[in-house]
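TOPIC: backbone geometry
CONTENTS: sequence, structure tokens:
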Amino acid sequence: MTRWTPRRWRVERRRGTGSVFRAIKALSLLVALLTVVFWTHAFYRFSGITDQNWEEADAIFTPATKTDSTIAAAQVRVTLNTSPRGKSLHEVILPSPASKPQLRETFKEQPMSSGDWVSTDTYLRTKLKLFLYSAYLDNRLAVPVVRVIGAYASVNGAQVSCRLEYASGEASVVAATKKTINENWKLKYGAAFFLCPYSDDSDNPPPVRVRLKETYELQWSPSIPIWPLETRPGEATGRFAVCVKPLHYKYDRVSWLAEFVEFNRIVGVDRFFFYNHSIGSNVDRLLRVYMEKGVVTSLPWNLDIKSQKEIRTEGLFAALNDCVYRSMNHFDYVLVLDLDEFAVPRKDDSLPAMVTRLKRAAPRTMSYVLLNSFFYLYWENDTTAYGALPETAPLEIPYLLTQFKTRRSKKVFRVGSRSKYIVRPVAAVEVGNHVVWRYLGEHFTLICSCA
């Protein structure tokens, strides 16, 4: 006789309890099944629907009466006949197989002013906007492209499409190639080129305006004009132009700006390109004077991206590249400078004379890198020129950097670190703040201490 221990007895008792639970569960399922059968039978009995008149049911298709500008839907109404003594009419509304939503592209409204930044709204999928500033017909490459200068995700992002619009009213959509401009620090946004190929022949006039969008989205940006790189009638021409990064933080050092412009005019600069993000009232008045004289081109620069947090310094690389393309075939050379920098020829009286001399020695040179050295503002002022400190009675001499800061640091920075450059615009493809990043075809760069 087997002797059950208390432990084994407890195990056996649990096993018996499990069998009871399984029986109760099976009984519950049976009751539920019988309930479904009962109510199904009652439905057919009281509605008067039989197998025969179900098979003979009429199908009446009626289009939907509710539509909107985005989705055009249709419905199918299936009417089931009742028996002659039926008391009710039952309808089942089903979606039509052909009633897929017809999604339409949208075109964002054009801004009130032209010549400034435009953008899409934030796309839901990528949480990004597409920004456009300018566009140029670049037929220097093997495949002609519309080169759009704008801003987008510095890393990754979505595929982008271009809508090229023609004077005839026609439009074509092509895939864009995005090239993020260097020195973006991998912030959320970076200045970028969008290259949109087009047919360049006499039978097909080039497009005149362009829009961008993320390829799998519906919303297009506002359109911007496309400018040819050839000389445009009515625009300034000359030998030398200066490009300056966007003026910001309500820049209002009017005496230093006047000194910058006048010094560079003395050494041979014909035109200055400024991008106005925010300036003070004094600088605004001075720029208007220079614009009336045909010395300055001031362009709006209202880029709605957080500077230094989401993009480098007001998107300066978009401004510098726009300046180079804007100057192409209008000026022989472009000099990129900040407002506190001066390129001083050492052996020549002017920048054009310096470049002419260097060009004779190296005819295929397309750019000249100027090495940088500091004249520190916190060092004492040199009073040799005027015999007095700046902005003091009785002379009230303006505080001019070139007159009072004459001591130079011994350190000369290497190429790419604080350096500046002179470049032939027709040879440039992509420029940075300190060097030219990409050229068209074969080129030579001369690194010199000539300034």
